[in-house]
Design brief:
single chain; alpha/beta; Aspartate Aminotransferase, domain 1; Aspartate Aminotransferase, domain 2; 7-stranded mixed beta sheet; 4-stranded mixed beta sheet; globular
């Protein structure tokens, strides 16, 4: 039996078989059989040939996505409450993003390794970002992902300061490449891959006493403005201001990781705007691309220039700043600005908080549309999430906080859709002991 790659492919194949072999009596049963063959074949190939990241993949087979909805091969619709982990901020396949991609594909795709040719999508996107950011964040280095943005920022800080030590935070997540893994704040995820980078250490988020560990030998401190995988933990008691002050005192650079909380998710274009703090280097990705892979680290022109000499080509990438991805990102940013999606986030957060009231919900952490519902245990949380998915609402837990449910829908979600999602979540909680 040939591999059936899509719903339309299945329909054509089934029609051909029907004409050739089937009678009206057996049609109904043959249809079920062929659908089962299709499902098993695709699932088997997925498990055999697509490298797995866990022993329990969700295994949903999605055929179409649009807005806040995913549709599987059986036509079942799911409300996406996690946005592909804070990626689809403007929803899936936003028409203006799709249009920008098509227009750019008709012009050119990859031309040359990063930084050699003047490519309009890169130039226009970098310029727009610079106009929206503080003056010291005016030079943009485009990458393919958030992990790569972190890697570039780490190199830049070591090159500019001529120091070696890098400090991050307990329960921080910055990516899975070896450099970003080295500054991850969870030892369980790191131990199997040692040795990692030397001269790294983790201090505690929201613990002001630990700031004394930042010294004159520290090249940089990497901080998530809001800790994502820790369970949407927000800074408290002017912690970020005190961190900024300590970095200024010691000459360490402050790197803000806004890969998950940037691009409108918290109710500001960038989360650091809530806290009256400006980083020396900003890392972005995820929601930046409207569904396309792109990231960036951003700093001052002076600081970024240190990667261009001694040695020259101090940081290089082949596909970073891919013109199609930059075109998608530019369209995404314009949608956020023109459709006022960021300004709507606070009201949508308030609606989630008002509706999600239940004795089993111990607390709701986070800011904007990056929220965490805290339950008693991972086992309870997992059962609630399973009920949600079965009832057409996709939720998830956090990497370092498995007893909390992730709520991070596209910013385009409507009030009515929020009400529907909350009804499903509360029903799922009620069904779980």
């Amino acid at each position: 039996m040939p591999i059936i790659k899509s719903q339309s492919n299945f329909t054509n194949h089934f029609s051909n078989l029907k004409r050739k072999y089937l009678t009206s009596v057996t049609l109904k049963f043959a249809g079920h059989f062929l659908y089962l063959c299709h499902m098993v074949t695709q699932r088997h190939l997925f498990l055999q040939h697509v490298a797995q990241t866990s022993e329990m993949p969700m295994g949903l087979e999605i055929e179409k996505a649009e807005g806040i909805y995913l549709t599987d091969i059986f036509g079942k619709r799911y409300m996406d409450l996690i946005s592909g982990i804070s990626v689809s901020n403007v929803g899936h396949r936003h028409p203006k993003v799709v249009e920008a991609i098509k227009e750019q594909v008709d012009k050119y795709m990859h031309l040359m390794v990063y930084g050699e040719y003047i490519q309009s999508p890169q130039v226009v996107l970098a310029t727009l970002l610079a106009t929206l950011l503080p003056k010291n964040l005016s030079s943009v280095y485009f990458t393919n992902s958030g992990s790569e943005a972190i890697e570039g920022a780490m190199k830049l800080s070591k090159r500019y300061t001529a120091r070696r030590e890098i400090i991050s935070f307990v329960n921080a997540y910055h990516g899975s490449t070896q450099g970003s893994l080295s500054i991850m704040g969870n030892e369980e995820f790191k131990n199997a891959f040692r040795p990692l980078l030397p001269d790294t250490r983790q201090i505690r988020f929201n613990n002001t006493a630990d700031l004394e560990q930042i010294t004159g030998r520290t090249a940089c401190v990497v901080v998530e403005t809001i800790q994502g995988e820790a369970g949407a933990i927000v800074p408290q008691n002017d912690f970020l201001k005190l961190l900024r002050k300590r970095c200024d005192e010691t000459g360490a650079l402050l790197i803000a990781d806004e890969i998950q909380c940037g691009f409108g998710r918290t109710g500001k274009l960038f989360a650091f705007e809530h806290y009256d703090v400006v980083p020396d280097i900003l890392c972005i990705a995820k929601g930046m691309g409207g569904g396309m892979p792109i990231g960036a680290f951003i700093s001052s022109k002076e600081m970024m220039h240190s990667l261009a000499h001694h040695p020259w080509l101090g940081h290089i990438t082949t596909f970073g700043g891919h013109p199609v991805c930059c075109a998608a990102s530019l369209a995404t940013l314009r949608v956020l600005l023109q459709e006022n999606l960021t300004e709507q986030v606070q009201q949508k957060e308030k609606l989630f908080r008002n509706l999600l009231v239940h004795p089993k919900i111990k607390a709701i952490h986070g800011k904007g549309l990056l929220l965490a519902l805290e339950f008693d245990s991972y086992e309870q949380n997992k059962k609630i999430i399973d009920h949600c998915i079965a009832n057409g609402v996709i939720a998830d837990w956090f990497l370092f906080n498995a007893h909390s449910m992730r709520i991070a829908p596209p910013l385009t979600i409507t009030a009515e859709e929020i009400k529907t999602a909350c009804e499903v979540i509360l029903k799922s909680i009620h069904l779980t002991p």
